[in-house]
Amino acid sequence: MRSESSFPLDKALLGFLMQGPAHGYALHQRADQELGRIWYMGMSNVYGTLKDLEASGHVGSSLDQDSYPPRKVHAITPPGRESFLAWVREPVSAIRDMRVEFLAKLYFFNTLNLEGRERLLEAQRAICRRRLRKLERRAAEGTEDAFERLVSDFRRRRIEASIDWLWACEEVWT
């Protein structure tokens, strides 16, 4: 269920449904307004993902006969809630996923007023520090050519910037 941008649409939809039942179009509108700065999801992707979530038991639905035309209203189930909470509390493993997926996690922590944001930030810093140590070990081996050193330097600087940014996130919310 991951798109090219490595964004788990299923988890985002579950996050929106944590705030109450909604129909597909409303979920798409909300995602566009609230997460559109970091990621775009197509309307057909939303409906396809909702169908998959319902098949997996993470979402239930009912038909709203009061609207015209009648709309299918989706609600999160207990397994869907468990799945969402497990996802939102886990750091991302790849540094490139911080730009989209990690920002979405912070969005949901803030919007849903969830506990554990500081643990998530620390866990993400720990992953960054491990990646940094791995790069440093490789550089210490001295086997990289000039281009490989440039690539490693780029990655190292990006990871260091990510760590700094994670500290800034914590300062914003304390």
Main sheet properties: 3 strands, antiparallel
Number of strand elements = 3
**Total helical segments:** 7
Please give the alpha-carbon distance between the first and last residues: 34 Å
Structural class: mainly alpha
Strand neighbour order, sheet with most strands: 1-3-2
Poorly predicted runs are: 1-5
Helix content class: 55-70%
* SSE string: HEHHEEHHHH
- Which quaternary structure do these chains form? single chain
Q: Radius of gyration from the CA trace?
A: 19 Å
Global shape: elongated
Q: What value does the average pLDDT take?
A: 91
Q: β content, as a range?
A: 5-15%
Topology of helices and strands:
Elements: H1 9-17, E1 22-23, H2 24-35, H3 43-55, E2 59-64, E3 71-76, H4 78-88, H5 101-111, H6 117-141, H7 146-173
Antiparallel strand pairs: 1-3, 2-3
Helix pairs in contact: 1-4, 2-3, 6-7
What does this protein look like?
Helix 1 (9-17) packs across helix 4, helix 2 (24-35) packs across helix 3 (43-55) and helix 6 (117-141) packs antiparallel against helix 7. The radius of gyration is 19 Å and the shape is elongated. It has helices at 9-17, 24-35, 43-55, 78-88, 101-111, 117-141, 146-173, and strands at residues 22-23, 59-64, 71-76. It contains seven helices and three strands; from the N terminus they run H-E-H-H-E-E-H-H-H-H. Residues 1-5 have low confidence and may be disordered. The chain is 63% helix and 8% strand. It has a three-stranded antiparallel beta sheet. It is mostly helical.
